[in-house]
Each structure stands twice: as structure tokens, then as C-alpha cells.
Amino acid sequence: MVSMHDWLTAAERDRRAAGLVRRTDDRRHPGPSTLDLASNDYLSLSSDPRLRAAAARAVERYGAGAGASRVVTGTTPCHTELEHALSELTGQPAALVFSSGYTANIGVVTALGSPDTLLITDAHIHASLIDGARLSRSPVAICAHSDLDALARLLRDRTQERAIVVVESIYSVLGDAPDLRRTADLCAKHDAFLVVDEAHGIGVAGNGRGAVHAAGLAAAPHVAVTATLSKSLGSQGGAVLGSPLLREHLVNTARTFIFDTGLAPAAAASAAEACRIVTAEPDRVAEVHRLAAAIAEAAGVPVAPGAVQSIPADSPEQAVAAANRLSEQDILVGCFRPPSVPDGVSRLRLVARAGVDRSRAVHAAHLAAEWSRAASTV
Ligand SMILES: Cc1ncc(COP(=O)(O)O)c(C=O)c1O
């Protein structure tokens, strides 16, 4: 027998030996002079005075917490307003707000899945969707990344009556995007339901209204969207968007909705304010795309469709060394290594964000590209 203490000690030693120790170091929180190309606050709204004011008003009025599940007493007017604002932004008929994007994803996948429903998940989907798939009790088929021929085969050859296809509109590590129109058409042809995680799409793709809206799929009855409020919308929380019938089903069956305390009113109110800003100030979104193109050009990589620009490194060590070297210059970038990279290639992840200094960001992209190559002197 092994005690929990010994097991934890051995696990910690193995992580350290593999160079895979994660930290929650508040010194990595960006200071006023930091060039932050690591966070997902794409539109720089999290510190916007209008979001702060909306949050403060909500705290004054409704208190710091929702106090109970949304289906008990935890739904405030802030939640209802946010659901309307999200519907308006994305063009979706209905929205249901969860306490995070993680719980929204688990909620929708588990509420729609069943042992007689095939769940076809793209090979690069987020951990929250993988966890949802595991909990759903559905048989799962992992489809090669954005491979529409493979998807067509899986849909055609299935033995289950129902099928759900799960993709992201912009993938979080590589920053690439699937052909949503063709994916949705394939789903329609094979009577399948499509769930699109727009965590990195809303606020960035399609003038900020998301890639599903841009593909003309906002009101398609066989498509649902999941979202986080913690990236472009600068707040915290998550949502599922789709038909009123889907919303009603989730309110009654999604365990991460029913058995979870409602989102804090301040987070709901600030996210609703962010939805209005995204529509009213389209230049914020355009600025992200202009900066994304400049970063990609400076780094010598093809420009990715969202804010995330991905720079491959020659090795995991090289990626870590380059990120550390940038950090010494007060520049924060993401650093991804196996096992956190879906294609096994270590990389730096530079995020184009509205409001950051363009010339510093371009300089950082040059350095990132140079320092992530083995020939550079680290
Ligand atoms: C693609 C994707 N889906 C879902 C989530 C989870 O969202 P949240 O942080 O709101 O839980 C994230 C990231 O955090 C993500 O990148």
C-alpha cells in the first residue's frame, strides 16, 4: 500500500524531472509597464472603466455572490440582461449563462450525449469538452483535426441514430480555424448536431459577433455555440447559445447549471457591458486583426485567423528559454510544450490584443521567432 503523501511526493518528483511543473505565481501578473502578449483579454476590456462601473453597480445592488443555483434564487436581472446581450451580439435566438466556459461545455455535452449518441470530437478540442465527452456516457470518436473527409466517414458509418460533432471556431493553441460552413453542411446532411466552442471566436471573428454568425449559421437549428465571458468579454463566466428549446433542455438537465451556484452578479453585469462595447466599438476588433497580421509577419509565420499567433520552437527547452528571455524584458508570452500541444510541437503563443503598443509587439515577435530557434544564443 502507498500513502497519499508518498504518492503526491512521487508525482511531484516526476513532474520536476520532466520539467513540467506549473506555477500560480502572482509575480507573473502583468504590471503597468509589461507588454502582455499572453493573456486572453483580447479587447483589453477587463480593466475598462465601464466594466468596472457595471460590476460595482451590480455588487451594490445584488451583493458579491448569486447565493444559490440559477434555478433556486440565483438568477438576478443581471443574468437575464446578459443573456439578452449575448443573444443580440451573436444573433442566436437564446442564451443560457453558466458560471464558467468550462461548466458550459461540460453542461451542454453531458445534457445532449447518451449511450446511443455518437460524439465526434475534433482531435484538438479543449479539456472542458474532453471532460464533457467522458462524462456524457456517449461513445466517442476522435476525428483527425479539421479533416472533413474523416468527419464525413464517421458520420456516414455510424450505427447510432443520433450524432453530435464538437469543434472550436478558433483553436486555442494553434490559433487555426475550421471551415464551419462545410462542417455544418455535413452535419445537416447526416442529421447530426454541431456544437461550436467560440471561446476564442466571440469578440474576434466576424466583427466580434463570432465565427458562427460570420458563417451565416447563427439561427441554424442544428448548431449550438458555447462561449466564455473571460476572454474578449473581459469578465468571468460562460454560456451556451442556441434555440429556446435547447436552453429549456439545459435548464432542466445540465448538471453543471442546476447544481452550481449562479455566476456572480458583478461578472454578469460587466460581461453584458462588454457585449454592448464590442458592437459599439468595432475598431477594437479590427485592431486585434491588424496587430495579429503585424505579429505574424514579424515572426515569419502565416497569419492565423484569430488573435492567437503561434510560433513553433525547435525544442521544448528552446521554447522555455525564449519565453524566459522575453519575460526578463518585461514581455509576457504563452509557452506550450508537450503534452499541452495537440501536434507535439513546442511553441510560443503570442496574442494580439487591442490597445497594446504596436512597435513593442512587433519587436517582441521578432525576438520570439529568433530566440525559439536552436541557432540563437540563449
Ligand atoms: C476553447 C476553450 N473552451 C473553454 C474554455 C474554458 O473557459 P473558462 O475559462 O471560462 O472556464 C477555454 C479556456 O479557458 C478555452 O480555451
Describe the structure.
There is one protein chain. This protein has 378 residues and is α/β, with parallel strands linked by helices. It has two domains: 25-40 and 307-371, Alpha-Beta Complex (Aspartate Aminotransferase, domain 1), CATH 3.90.1150; 49-280, Aspartate Aminotransferase, domain 2. The protein has helices spanning 4-17, 49-62, 77-90, 101-112, 127-135, 148-157, 180-189, 211-214, 244-253, 255-258, 265-280, 282-299, 316-328, 358-371; strands spanning 35-37, 94-98, 117-122, 140-143, 162-168, 192-197, 223-228, 238-242, 308-312, 331-336, 347-351. Strand 5 (162-168), helix 7 (180-189) and strand 6 form a beta-alpha-beta unit. Helix 6 packs parallel to helix 7 and helix 13 (316-328) runs antiparallel to helix 14 (358-371). The mean pLDDT is 95. Pyridoxal-5'-phosphate is lined by residues 100-102, 105, 126, 128, 168, 172, 197, 199-200, 228, 230, 238. Residues 100-102, 105, 126, 128, 168, 172, 197, 199-200, 228, 230, 238 line the site of pyridoxal-5'-phosphate.
Radius of gyration computed on alpha carbons: 21 Å
The level 1 CATH classification of the largest domain is Alpha Beta
Strand order, largest beta sheet:
2-8-7-6-5-3-4
Oligomer: single chain
SSE class: alpha/beta
Please give the alpha-carbon distance between the first and last residues.
45 Å
Strand content: 15-25%
For CATH, the homologous superfamily of the largest domain is named as: Type I PLP-dependent aspartate aminotransferase-like (Major domain)
Number of strands: 11
Biggest sheet statistics = 7 strands, mixed
Question: Which stretches of 5+ consecutive residues score pLDDT under 50?
Answer: none
Mean pLDDT: 95
Which series of helices and strands comes N to C?
Answer: HEHHEHEHEHEHEHEEHHHHEHEEH
Which ligands are bound? pyridoxal-5'-phosphate
SS element count, helices: 14
Determine the fraction of residues in helical runs and give it as a percent range. Answer: 40-55%
Shape: globular
| Tally of separate domains | 2
Determine the CATH topology of the largest domain.
Aspartate Aminotransferase, domain 2
Question: How does CATH name the architecture of the largest domain?
Answer: 3-Layer(aba) Sandwich
